[in-house]
Amino acid sequence: MKRILALGVLLASVWSGTTFAETLRFSSFEPPAAYVTSKILAPWAEKVAAASKGTLEIQMFAGGTLGRSPAQQLKLVEDGVADIAWVIPGYTPGRFDEGTVAELPFMVTESHKGSLAMWKMVEDGHFKGDYEKFKLLCVCVSTPAFIGATKEINEPKDLSGLKMRAPGPTQLAVLEALGAVPIGGITAATLAESISRGLISGSLIEWSASETFNADEVLTHYNTALLGATPMLVLMNKARYEALPAEAREAIDQFSGETFSDYFGKEFDAYVAAARERIEANYKPQVVEPDEAAVEAWKAAVAPATEKWIAAHDNGQAIYDAFGKALQAVEGAK
Hints:
The protein has 334 residues and is an alpha/beta fold. The chain is built from 12 helices and 11 strands. It folds into 2 domains: 153 residues, D-Maltodextrin-Binding Protein, domain 2 (3-Layer(aba) Sandwich); 134 residues, D-Maltodextrin-Binding Protein, domain 2 (3-Layer(aba) Sandwich). The strands form 2 sheets. The protein has a 6-stranded mixed sheet. A 5-stranded mixed sheet has the order 2-1-3-10-4. Helix 5 links the parallel strand 6 and strand 7.
């Protein structure tokens, strides 16, 4: 009897022309009210669903409801627990390795231009391997990270011997080149506690991360030398994407790729600027803006990290040069 009823419902839907919307699970490790999740990812999902002609619903699972750690997000998509996720490749070293070129110092100057350049690297075939295993919705970067610390940092030598955190191997190598003691394995969620307990003296960070993860409450000094951006991805299980109805795939494609990277970068830059204003107003930290001479000193100090990255990749010099050209192309187009 149940099978007859189910068949009747199916036939009724076919005869009436009704289609059932596919539901996609979108995972974010951030709290639901955090800026990227609430103001970038969720609105993107709403636009895609609205354009799908009723074939698609996208449900946000924020705050780690599918997986709490940022390091879990990639596996959630690979295992089909999530269909889409916001992924920070630095938490899974060795994956999406070509994209760590964006972590090198003094290349990316802002999220918007950096994100467009990252997508251009995908389009031009410079990013392969893991990038080819997923449906790439957005390939982007943060604004550049800089020094956030509990003591004054005016020049590279001030970091000598300090325990400093970074999210991945490339930026840890930058800290090592600066004479700091690089500390990995500390996620953004535990950063403020690690600083307040004296386990580390600071981190490579940018303003939005400092605010989102409460590091602004314990960091008293910043030096804004551009020490490398954090690559980020919004990606989808490729098999799940390919199994969707044509209207659903078309809606996803409409708002993905360069369009999503452009949108993400603009929104991220605006948020970071506002976050800096709030941090300076609320906590009044000391902020050092390096002048031209100081920038040259920082560049000289971190040069070994760039050389190390190039040497560690089979086509490191080619990727480095291509990313520099992509950044220039984006700059010239604006």
